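A reminder before we start the practical. When you read a complex entry, don't treat the lines as separate problems. The point of joint prediction is that each chain is placed relative to the others, so the output describes one connected object in space. Small molecules and nucleic acid strands, if listed, are placed in the same frame. In the example below there are two entries. Take a minute to note the order of the lines before looking further.
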Amino acid sequence: MKRRKYEELFFRVLMVLATIFVAGSFFLIVGTIFYKGAPYMNLDMITKTPSGGFYIGKEGGILNAIIGSMYIAGGATVLGLLISIPVAIYINMYMGSKTFLANTLRMAFDVLFGIPSIVYGAFGFLIMVYFGLRASLLGGIIAVTLLVIPILVRTLDEVIRTVPFELRDAALSLGATRWETAKVVLRQIRPGIFTAVLLSFGRAIGDVASVLFTAGFSDNIPTSLHEPAATLPLAIFFQLSSPVEEVQGRGYASALVLTIIVLIITVLSEIFIKKFFKHKI
Amino acid sequence: MDNKSLISVQQLNVHIGNQHILKDINIDIPDKKVTSIIGPSGCGKTTLLKTFNRLLDNSADVKITGEVLVDGENIYAPDVEVTHIRQKMGLLSQRPYPLPMSIYDNVAYGPRIHGIRKKHDLDELVEKQLKATGLWEEVKDRLHASATRLSIGQQQRLCLARGLAVGPEIILGDESTSALDPVSTHIIEDLFVQLKEKYTIVLVTHILRQAARVSDNIIFIYMGKIIEMGPTHEVLHNPKEELTKQYVKGYIT
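Here is the predicted structure of the whole assembly.
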């Protein structure tokens, strides 16, 4: 009898410790970035582009990287969504969700999901070389789009599968075509699409390897798709590699900016989902 | 049963995978009457209902042979427009599944996809069908609220109104009251009885008392075969077949 009680206690303590460890790591990471970055945080950081000598500790900010990252993550997510929605709809509503082909495709996307982003970077680079493009905003968007498509397709696929078959039958039995039925399903999963977009955006804005060769780096805000674009992760990397203390601090400040952007997106989306999707079953 | 029937099934066989679900089904569903399909779980009654509006089309591994004639037209003929067939029938499923939109848009959805665009016409249709299902008084002040805010019984009536709005001749009910409370069940049953003046109604049910309350005719299916069919009173109180007797008495479930 005693033994069972101790067993219960033992595993409960284990679970509590594991939870504390995970939660603690989260606060430790955010805390470190904040502690190291906050002193170097100022309005210039987010409103100015680097001026001469920024990387040896002189004036400027990382607006170029903020805008560049937004362009790339935003562009890639929009482009990825335009490709992924038809794919997810086709797999589930035209192919027959449980057929061999559908499951093979799912597996393929799972494999793509797991491929390291440097591979997408390399592949994107090859495409650019083939078309004679130089490192540019466009190149970055293409590589990151490739990166986020598997995320989007698999998330949308999971979400579509939560829609009850009877809802499709309801639309079909009113005489709707498959595409009209698909539109009803898309309407039903709008919160899910939103979640997919956020996951994709979050992954896209933080990824370094895919933009390393493809987007290049520039101290200016890109004004066309053919100009190279800076990204936040690369900006952080460059600054942290500097021996100058001031620049390193700004690296942490940049990391703080990136974290805050992701945080704002997450919070906004929570509010958005709660407020606007009242038609959900 | 008389000759004039909207739905006539001839030599229908349905296989799903390597299972023979429906075996040699031959029936004529009488017009403007309520016909109940009864039988134990898994006997094929829902499958039979779904063959009427070709909802099995999208399931994998289904093989259908034989004919289902609706208005004299074989709905499994290769050149048939499936959306046109389905428009002739309103389906009421086990649980209400309102479309993810407002009450008004739920009813207007069908007419809209079939080409009715004028707001005035839609307004009229929505009001008419909501009145037909007794929902109008309850929802007329919140037509543009989400359909999911309604109670489950109201949702089921909304789904009925939605089905009626495309102008069907037939109503198919697949255990349509199984998720509802007794009061809502009663309302839906009453609606079926009212609606048979204008529509041919086919219900799948496993509740014998419900079949007794609402239907004019009963079809008893067991293991994919039609065992007995006829007027409700006859089948329930004076069954000819041994299997029907056992089922009606509750020995087979």
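Discuss with your neighbour: The CA atoms of residues 248 and 274 of chain A lie 40 Å apart. What might explain this?
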